[in-house]
Design brief:
single chain, 717 residues, alpha+beta, Multidrug efflux transporter AcrB transmembrane fold, five-stranded antiparallel β-sheet, 27 helices, 14 strands, 65% helix, disordered C terminus
């Protein structure tokens, strides 16, 4: 470790030059990494809804689908608009009432319910199919062009419209997220560190690590918008610990070697490397646990953030020391007193009244567990862009999809569209019976397929070719089902189950696809994923702590304290009624566990050191708490500032919600480590000492420090 420190100090100029050169390819990679805004594409390919989506693309040449409401146009103008929409690049086909008719098909043959399905007063509805996927750049460009055809009279609803608005909003806000996080972190660090310049040195090192991380994402092909929006902010918040630990160590070593900064830095790197590495390992393990999710968004975020932790760690022990050594004189000239007061009185109070703290812990634990188990979450993806609260402060042009969805519901009582893929050779009789049964399901407005116009009075030969091309292809036929129930609601999920049961009666291989069925799959898949990820994260971090502390009980104490903080944090929404996005609990629990357990590691390391030197449990815990508090508070408040700033600024509901809960979690973890952890040490000190290595110095084994408690004044001195 010390050899490595001497190497970094000796070559700190070349290290910094190499670091600056690497920024060029990193910037190129960052600018050329595609962003995916469709959360349903991360569902596993093996499930039926995703298989059906592939069939729709391969056999029908159709990918995305939108319902468009046209307001205040007569049939002639709507027909002209329909032709313009057909001419938009990547529009595959348009289905309207006149599509079902032709010169050979009298309007009287078409049931009145289908005319009513597409027309209501001044409002007309068209169904548009695209030949590209929901979140493809081509689809989003097509949505923008369609809106421009009749700006005030065209309302484009559906996933593709939502994704288009989300992309525009996120691309505009994402650079500001980083700026806000940096500004908030700077304010916190200026107040809580001992130099006016050191926050900017920290941020320069972390900023380079962030750019390396984001640039290397080009090798992944693409990342989700959630990952892009959160990765930089989280990497800043999580890896700030490393910089703080190194700076505090360097400050201590400089007092020992006031005339030899290079030696002070090399020893600081050597002393800090183990602590930083163990902290980095726990954070990395937490993020890698997300890779065990079947829902691939977990791996997307987990890989990027684990990579960010590793790169942040490397930069903290290479680039940061180089920057500190280069700017050592300005750093010294800008020193000031930190605003964090002495913690001696607090540490004495915690050690003396640990019983009261443990009683409060038990009292809070019960409602925390109840809230955690019953935490409210939502799965409706559109709600993750804008909800009732965020929509009020947003520009209407930023959420045009929301007004289109409301228009569709108000004028046609349609909230979601499901699609059925079934055997193209199904008899007219069976197909019509199936359609009739589907239309009898609660919440179904109507079902339109090839057999809505074929059979009976109209022979196959008379069916318009465009209808046949839209609704039949090869081995499959396509049926559209419009529902008045909202996506992710219990009603629509029951409806999906009932429709699936009906279509399987007529074709065992039939598939129900679309946003609502895919969201239903998302609910069942992620429920299991979350349990798996929590278990993997806890087991992995326990294993790391066993290695670090060589203790039979300490890993369980440390994890229990942070898990308590997680329960409190994620239990609060149950009592406030603020539902979180479905991805929130698993992301927040792994991030909070992996990143804030570092606070507990820092305090435990000092507690072990004091016990090893022969001090009694009271003094050891007091010293551990008082010396760790500045680093813990600085790290936690920095984490809070960076994430809270983004939460307050962001108009994207999902990003705002995740950052807000993470900010709160950092403070709750801080309080748990500063109060609950020392209380557990006081209660279980005897067991800890007997079952852990490094607590007993053989030279002091006779008294085990029992008679070496010192006075508070001596500890302070």
């Amino acid at each position: 470790m010390y050899k490595f420190g001497r190497f970094v100090v000796k070559f700190h100029i070349p290290i910094l030059v190499i670091g600056l050169v690497l920024l060029v390819p990193s910037l190129f990679g960052y600018l050329h990494t595609r962003v995916n805004y469709d959360m349903l594409t991360y569902l596993p390919d093996s499930i039926e809804t995703m298989k059906g989506q592939n069939i729709l693309s391969e056999d029908f040449g159709k990918g995305a689908f939108s319902l468009i409401v046209v307001d205040g146009m007569d049939d002639k103008d709507v027909s002209a608009l329909e032709n313009k929409i057909k001419d938009v690049d990547h529009v595959d086909s348009v289905l309207w009432y006149d599509t079902l008719t032709s010169a050979n098909v009298p309007k009287q043959v078409i049931p009145q319910k289908y005319y009513d399905a597409f027309n209501n007063g001044d409002a007309t509805m068209l169904a548009v199919f695209f030949d590209t996927s929901t979140s493809a750049d081509e689809t989003m460009n097509a949505i923008t062009q369609i809106r421009a055809l009749a700006n005030d009279q065209v309302y484009v609803s559906g996933m593709s419209a939502m994704v288009t608005d989300l992309k525009n909003l996120a691309e505009r806000e994402e650079p500001i997220y980083v700026a806000v996080a940096v500004l908030c972190a700077v304010v916190v660090l200026l107040a809580l560190t001992d130099s006016w310049l050191v926050p900017f040195i920290f941020l320069a090192s972390i900023g380079m690590a962030i750019l390396y991380n984001m640039g290397s994402n080009i090798f992944l092909g693409e990342i989700s918008y959630i990952t892009k929006a959160l990765a930089a902010v989280l990497q800043l918040a999580v890896t700030m610990d490393f910089s703080i630990f190194l700076w505090h160590s360097f400050t201590e070593k400089r007092e020992l070697y006031p005339d030899d900064n290079t030696r002070a830095m090399s020893e600081a790197i050597g002393d800090t490397l183990v602590a930083i590495t163990s902290s980095g390992m726990t954070a990395t393990a937490g993020f890698l646990a997300l890779c065990f999710m079947t829902y691939r968004l977990g791996a997307d975020l987990g890989i990027v953030m684990a990579k960010g932790c590793i790169l942040g760690l490397i930069c903290a022990v290479t680039l940061l020391p180089s920057l500190i050594l280069i700017f050592e004189k300005p750093l010294e000239k800008t020193r000031h007193r930190t605003l964090i007061p002495s913690a001696d009185r607090l540490s004495n109070a915690v050690a003396n009244h640990y019983g009261v703290i443990l009683v409060i812990f038990v009292i809070v634990l019960i409602p925390a567990i109840i809230g955690f188990v019953n935490k409210p979450v939502y799965y409706q993806l559109s709600q993750g862009v804008a909800n009732e609260e965020t929509a009020q402060k947003m520009n209407p042009d930023d959420i045009r999809y929301m007004y289109a969805d409301e228009k569709l519901q108000d004028d046609f009582d349609v909230s979601t569209t499901e699609m059925i893929l079934c055997d193209s050779d199904m008899s007219h009789v069976d197909a019509k019976n199936m359609l009739d049964r589907i239309e009898g399901v609660d919440g179904v407005k109507y079902a339109i397929g090839y057999d809505s116009v074929a059979g009976g009075q109209l022979p196959d030969e008379a069916v318009p070719k465009n209808v046949r091309s839209i609704l039949k292809s090869g081995d499959y036929q396509l049926i559209l089902v419009n529902s008045s129930y909202e996506v992710a609601s219990d009603e629509v999920n029951n409806q999906i189950s009932e429709i699936n049961s009906i279509i399987k009666d007529y074709d065992p291989d039939a598939m129900l696809i679309g946003e609502a069925p895919a969201t239903k799959d998302l609910i069942s898949i992620t429920d299991n994923d979350f349990r798996v990820v929590d278990i993997v994260a806890i087991v992995a971090i326990l294993a790391i702590l066993f290695i670090v502390f060589k203790s039979a009980i300490l890993p369980f104490i440390l994890v229990a304290v942070i898990e308590f903080a997680i329960c409190v944090n994620l239990g609060i929404p149950f009592y406030t009624g603020n539902a979180m996005p479905f991805i929130g609990p698993v992301v927040i629990s792994t991030i909070q566990l992996g990143s804030t357990v570092n606070y507990a590691i820092l305090m435990t390391t000092r507690y072990r050191k004091e016990r090893f030197e022969g001090k009694g449990k009271h003094d050891s815990i007091m010293i551990a708490l008082s010396t760790s508090l500045p680093s813990v508070v600085t790290s936690a408040v920095s984490f809070f500032g960076a994430t809270f700033g983004v939460a307050a600024y962001s108009n994207v509901a999902l990003i705002s919600s995740l950052c807000g809960v993470m900010a709160r979690g950092a403070l709750i973890s801080m309080l748990s480590v500063l109060f609950v952890l020392p209380a557990f040490f006081m209660l279980l000190d005897g067991v800890i000492v007997r079952t852990s290595k490094g607590f007993i110095n053989k030279g002091n084994k006779g008294n085990n420090g029992k008679n070496q408690d010192t006075k508070v004044a001596e500890v302070s001195a």
